[in-house]
């Protein structure tokens, strides 16, 4: 089984990579093997363009059986404890559209430039139809942006326009490629901060990364156990 671990940065998944280095056989840089599992790391860089390009290129060079997207995210609900880890089951390109003269936002679906139900979209969303195969974490709906929200006006706009739980810069890119190419996938995000006027000193990256990688290790071990049966 070929598994691709896709993240924007190496530090988000470094604890899992350290585990693979110690317990798996490294076949090449970023490529490990153990029994029937072949595991490749893909670092796309932050943002949608690199995510779509990197994953598409990997799929044609090294076709995968499962994509695991892993990373940190901001939570819109300020009552969510930092470090909470979710399975993201749907995504949206949350800033793909136009800014109107009054400062409001209109997306491409509302402009009739894109059919909200044209594949891979469903009612304007990208939905992981196979999410129930991995039913082990609380579920979340993601919003993917090119610019991380840090001002009250833009945050209020997102809240008004979409019902989303988490904000990231890559999630919808993963959903888009995997749905278009028919690749089974799993999206895991751990909350490092709340979506609020930007206060970087309130973020807790170490906690979010620790919780994220604990979950990733559990997933990998479960996949291996299933294959061993």
In short:
The protein has 229 residues and is an alpha/beta fold. The protein has five helices and twelve strands. It is globular.
Explain the overall architecture.
With 229 residues, the chain is of the alpha/beta class. The protein has a single domain, classed as Rossmann fold (3-Layer(aba) Sandwich). The chain is 30% helix and 29% strand. The protein has five helices and twelve strands. It has helices spanning 14-23, 48-61, 152-161, 171-181, 205-228; strands at residues 2-7, 25-28, 31-34, 37-43, 66-75, 85-93, 97-99, 105-107, 126-127, 139-144, 166-168, 185-194. The strands form two sheets. The protein has a five-stranded mixed beta barrel. Strand 7 (97-99) and strand 8 (105-107) form a beta hairpin. Helix 1 (14-23) packs across helix 5 (205-228) and helix 2 runs parallel beside helix 4 (171-181). The longest helix has 24 residues, at 205-228.
Topology (elements, then pairings):
Blueprint: E1 2-7, H1 14-23, E2 25-28, E3 31-34, E4 37-43, H2 48-61, E5 66-75, E6 85-93, E7 97-99, E8 105-107, E9 126-127, E10 139-144, H3 152-161, E11 166-168, H4 171-181, E12 185-194, H5 205-228
Parallel strand pairs: 1-4, 1-5, 5-12, 6-10, 10-11
Antiparallel strand pairs: 2-3, 3-4, 5-11, 6-9, 6-12, 7-8
